[in-house]
Amino acid sequence: MRDPGGKFTKGNSGNPNGRPAKADKLRQLLEGKADKVARKVIDAALDGDLQAARLVMERCIAPHRAVMPTCTFDLDETKPLTEQGRAVLAAIARGDIPPDTGKSLIDALTALARVTELDEIVRRLNQLEEQKDES
């Protein structure tokens, strides 16, 4: 099963049965007792156990996520997407919008360009199919 260097040879595992299902065993042990365990952890947290408090906080309170602040600037929707992208880059350069917001806007313009391309492809395909049906 091993080569001269002590490594397992290809196709031979050191653990042919795979990993033991420890999580399943733990779940079986906790069946019907999870409320009591949770209560003990909460009580320990209330008594000043910082590890228990951290566990409770991590599991019970959603993490705070950073949110970009709202900002406004002029963007002419009638212009081509390339010009809109340039307008976003210019707004970043002037300091009108933060770079992370500008990146999000550029990403949104990129997604819009893809959707627009797909719309155009579908429109052209339908046109071709109509022409084919007419002939």
Commentary on this structure:
This protein has 135 residues and is an all-alpha fold. The radius of gyration is 30 Å and the shape is extended. The mean pLDDT is 87. It starts with 21 loop residues before the first helix and ends with a helix. The protein has 5 helices and no strands. It has 2 domains: 65 residues, no CATH class; 54 residues.
Strand content: under 5%
The residue fraction in helices comes out at 55-70%
What would the average pLDDT be, to the nearest integer? 87
How many domain modules?
Answer: 2
Spatial extent as radius of gyration: 30 Å
How does the helix and strand content classify structurally? Answer: mainly alpha
Number of strands: 0
Low-pLDDT stretches are none
Total DSSP helices:
5
List the helices and strands and how they pair.
Blueprint: H1 22-30, H2 34-46, H3 50-60, H4 81-94, H5 99-134
Key terms:
single chain; 135 residues; mainly alpha; 2 domains; 5 helices; 0% strand; extended
In short:
Helices cover 61% and strands 0% of the residues. With 135 residues, it is mostly helical. The chain is extended and about 70 Å long.
